[in-house]
Amino acid sequence: QVQLVESGGGLVQPGGSLRLSCAASGRTFAAYTMGWFRQAPGRQRQFVAAWYWSRGSPYYADSVKGRFTTSSAKNTVYLQMNDLKPEDTAVYYCAAAPRGTVDNDDYAYWGQGTQVTVSS
After folding, report:
1. Buried residues in 49-74 as b, exposed as e (16+ CB within 10 A)
2. Do residues 91 and 113 lie in contact, with contact meaning Cβ atoms separated by under 8 Å?
3. CB neighbours of 114 closer than 8 A, spacing ≥ 6?
4. Of 5, 68, 77, 94, which is the most buried if we count CB atoms within 10 A?
5. pLDDT at 97
6. CA atoms of 27 and 34, how far apart (whole Å)
7. pLDDT of residue 26
8. d(CA 70, CA 66)
9. pLDDT value at position 44?
10. Three-state DSSP string of the chain
11. pLDDT at 84
């Protein structure tokens, strides 16, 4: 059974940093894309970043480019978030898709989500 387990959320002041982790198990993810999404209260789920495991390369939404970095080690994907802003406050999810995509409808597997709150 596929499992994605996120960790690393919390409360941070503006300008601070957090690192989220997503541990994947239950299948081989070598050909998958691991995506990061976020959802703020009252808003639609939004693409943040993706790690293309087969290419070993990332892709970012414009809103986080230069501040967020995604990477992987073994079966874990990371999202390093720097220079956090209040508008980054949301529940962050990792997800897995069998192809390269930023469309959340294409992601077959989802983690439980972790809350990130940016506030002074």
Report:
1. bbbbbeeeebbbbeebeeebbbebee
2. yes
3. 6, 7, 8, 9, 20, 91, 92, 93
4. 94
5. 92
6. 13
7. 86
8. 11
9. 95
10. CCEEEEECCEEECCCCCEEEEEEEECCCCCCCEEEEEEECCCCCCEEEEEEECCCCEEEECCCCCCCEEEEEECCEEEEEECCCCHHHCEEEEEEEECCCCCCHHHCCEECCCEEEEECC
11. 98
Tell me the mean pLDDT per 10 residues along the chain, length 120: 92 98 87 93 95 87 97 92 97 92 90 97
Using CA atoms, how far apart are residues 25 and 6, in angstroms rounded to an integer? 12
Residue 120 tokens, joined:
């002074």
Rounded CA separation 45/37 (Å):
6
β-strands 3-7, 18-25 pairing: antiparallel
Give the C-alpha separation, 25 to 109, whole Å. Answer: 11
